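Task 17 of the worksheet. Students: predict the tertiary structure of the chain below and write it out as structure tokens. Keep your answer in the requested format; marks are given for formatting as well as content.
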Amino acid sequence: MKLLEDRIMQDGIVLPGDVLKVDQFLNHQVDPDLMLAMGVEFAELFKNEKITKILTVESSGIAPAVFVGLQFHVPVVFARKNKSVTMQNDLYSASVYSYTKKVENTIAVANKFLGENDRVLIIDDFLANGQAAEGLFQICDEAKAEIAGIGIVIEKSFQKGAELIHERGVRLESLAKISSFDGDQVHFED
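Model answer:
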């Protein structure tokens, strides 16, 4: 998606450790016009999949997921990282390691929001090592929900996440695929 790639080139900052900072438009400050364009793009890519729910992980996946949910007119469910007093029992959960935060989180979804009649589209902001995707797959498996596909805003194709998703046989669509950060610059796949 050229619009997204242009924005990454304009505002993205490459940090040590193969980290891309995109807080100007994606995961701190959110550009709603860009989110809308991405929602439309994901809806077009997955238009024939009979999606009933959008699933993501808090917090950076929520903005793009909501805009995708708007296009499909289906609920958006996000796996929470911290249990609240209102969320104690009847949960699907998984452990997920955050590469950028260097911490393991237990993510959870209340079982009333996901079930065997759901056809789920997973949306997330980044795909690197695939840990968040694996955790969301585990939650869908527990719920007996069918995974229709996974949509990623920015994929680091030089890391193993896409391979894990393909091994599972899940359709993956990424709007921007980064092949490397050589010379502290973003290089996209052709």
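Marker's comment: The CA atoms of residues 19 and 101 lie 11 Å apart. The first strand starts at residue 13 and ends at 15.
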